[in-house]
């Protein structure tokens, strides 16, 4: 749990750094490529290919491609359509996606998740009850794409790690995760990126260095390592602990003029949907016991 708390504090600043210094100023595909490329450089010196079999290496690369590569593409695009607080609030669906993915893996279906998801969509509408347009809803869906990729990566890594020896030094194989993400970022920038959108200021380069070396390079390794050491309930809670931490940073430092009443009401509905979901899950576990 300590690892997850530490990474939450680390990531709390990432949303605002992206929204304030990169979104709309630096090509999003280049930002993704830069972050992942720097993360690869952090772990490449530790990589020991002989520690994993070929299928395990491919599985870890696939998880990196989804959890980091595809997720970042969705994530950076969302900042072009939504404000930082909106992006943060809309990440609250991730625990529900984790539960749905677990259902899918075990051949179950839980209709109640659709109820809580509908309540969360209502909360999203309250936040922007004026000026709702196609751009807003597109941004909302883009964030959900990022959430789904992040949830799939976490669930998949937990499953994969459970089958690996406990004595295996995780830092000596985690480079495959970033190489998988790089396999997505390179063609994405080559096909969709804009070379004219490279950073133009020292601050922008500094933000990218911080995000790549620390937030991505160190952060995702520690987060996934922490995810294997807690139960699914604790992991779900920590997925949403990032929201108040990120909002606090953004509202106090960069976004003092936000409509706090509307943001608070919509956020309360979204949080309420999650609380209802957790209450129902606990009730179901008690009934099963």
UniProtKB/TrEMBL annotation:
Claim: tRNA processing is one of the keywords in the record: no
Residue span, EamA domain: 3-127
Keywords, ordered alphabetically: Membrane, Transmembrane, Transmembrane helix
Any single Gene Ontology cellular-component annotation: membrane
Transmembrane feature ranges: 29-46, 58-75, 81-100, 112-130, 136-155, 176-197, 203-223, 235-254, 260-281
Record InterPro entries: EamA_dom (IPR000620), EmrE-like (IPR037185)
Keyword Transmembrane helix attached: yes
Top-level taxon in the UniProt lineage: Bacteria
Name of this chain's protein: Carboxylate/amino acid/amine transporter
């Amino acid at each position: 749990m300590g690892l997850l708390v530490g990474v939450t504090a680390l990531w709390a600043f990432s949303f605002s750094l992206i929204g304030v210094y990169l979104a709309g100023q630096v090509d999003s595909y280049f930002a993704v490529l830069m972050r992942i490329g720097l993360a690869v450089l952090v772990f490449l010196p530790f990589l020991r290919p002989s520690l994993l079999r070929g299928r395990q290496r491919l599985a870890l690369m696939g998880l990196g491609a989804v959890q980091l590569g595809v997720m970042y593409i969705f994530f950076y695009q969302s900042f072009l359509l939504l404000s930082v607080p909106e992006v943060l609030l809309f990440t609250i669906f991730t625990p529900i996606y984790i539960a749905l993915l677990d259902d899918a893996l075990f051949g179950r279906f839980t209709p109640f998740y659709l109820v809580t998801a509908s309540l969360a969509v209502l909360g999203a509408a309250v936040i922007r009850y004026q000026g709702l347009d196609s751009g807003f809803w597109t941004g909302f869906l883009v964030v959900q794409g990022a959430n789904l990729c992040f949830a799939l990566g976490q669930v998949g890594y937990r499953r994969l790690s459970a089958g690996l020896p406990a004595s295996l030094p995780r830092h000596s194989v985690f480079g495959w995760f970033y190489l998988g993400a790089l396999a997505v970022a390179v063609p994405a920038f080559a096909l969709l990126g804009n070379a004219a959108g490279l950073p133009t200021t020292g601050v922008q380069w500094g933000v990218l260095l911080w995000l790549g070396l620390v937030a991505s390079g160190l952060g995702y390794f520690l987060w996934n390592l922490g995810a294997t050491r807690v139960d699914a309930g604790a992991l779900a809670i920590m997925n949403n602990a990032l929201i108040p931490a990120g909002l606090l940073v953004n509202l106090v430092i960069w976004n003092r003029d936000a409509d706090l009443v509307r943001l608070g009401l919509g956020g309360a509905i979204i949080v309420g949907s999650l609380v209802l979901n957790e209450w129902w899950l606990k009730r179901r576990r008690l009934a099963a016991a």
